[in-house]
């Protein structure tokens, strides 16, 4: 990042805001973003080394502008990887490529066309009975108890059990794959130390090799799962999708398909229990649940910041960006933009336009798993309100958050069950 380009942005390149702001989730973030939306909607954050874009309209325009912005940096490690960590990955045969969320243009369209033949509404809808069964199995374990920690006991495992049905990952591998996914979250989306990167690189090699072996096994023994179906669509033709791209798609979904949904479920429950009248409203009228799901995606979306990089000179929110300059689209801020959502800091399960949130992106890259995520959160809310209408937040339980600018992810949700 060169000083000249930042200085060419118009106003002071290092505003007071840019000198003190951090996009990492912290208390007070919403207030700081609200102030920025009014006073300086696009500013350069020195500690993050990114431009921060706060208004809904600007975020939407970036999401739809593929001429001036690239998505290639969406999953880059938040702290650039040390050469020693890169060597571990190279020596371990880690050959994941940029596919799906972090590639552009025709390549992105080609790979999305292939994966959406398997990851689509029909496939997700067919999972509904399984999701309900898994939710109820998790809730059965809470029966007769006074208190629970819902993240570790319910929401951590649920989305993984669901997506692993599609992926054909056996239940006995769940703990391991979840652990690798956690490491991947840290590597890609949180600041990391040298030691974390070295340990993380080893984990990523193991995770990648697990995916390679899984896909290769399906070449010889096809089943009714994602890798087998993608292999069939590929039909041995690299022009459709190469084997390495296909393995990377599998590697991607084995991560994207559950981490965020876990967080979204936890956040939705916390918001509903914090604003108890809203909880009581959906208990009394379950028809409100789909709307409540959307409002939770808006008010406390799992993804609060998503990246892009300018590839052409482009003006955004009155600031001129130069090619190469990286941007965090603050989804958390866009979702609370008063110009789009009246009274944005109120959690209101009857809000009419909640579905306009950007928590799952928008445009060509919009989340391919969005219908599944919505379905999972909806079923969880339907079953938990039916079975535990007396659920209450234990308000004095300490809550810590993962240190990341990408997710709004708390590390526990303590409740009273009756
Ligand atoms: C609450 C849950 C989820 C959230 C908040 C979420 C969020 C996102 C976001 C922000 C993007 C990037 C959108 C963009 O750049 O415009 C994305 C892309 C993607 N998500 Fe999700 N996601 C969730 C669940 C899922 C699930 C369950 C799956 C798998 C079934 C999934 C698979 C994908 C894929 C494959 C992409 C890449 C799409 C593309 O670039 O073409 N996600 N998601």
TrEMBL record:
Coiled coil: none annotated. This is Cytochrome P450. It comes from Ruixingdingia sedimenti. Pfam families: p450 (PF00067). Gene3D superfamilies: Cytochrome P450. SUPFAM superfamilies: Cytochrome P450 (SSF48264). Belongs to the cytochrome P450 family. CDD domains: CYP130-like. It comes from the Bacteria.
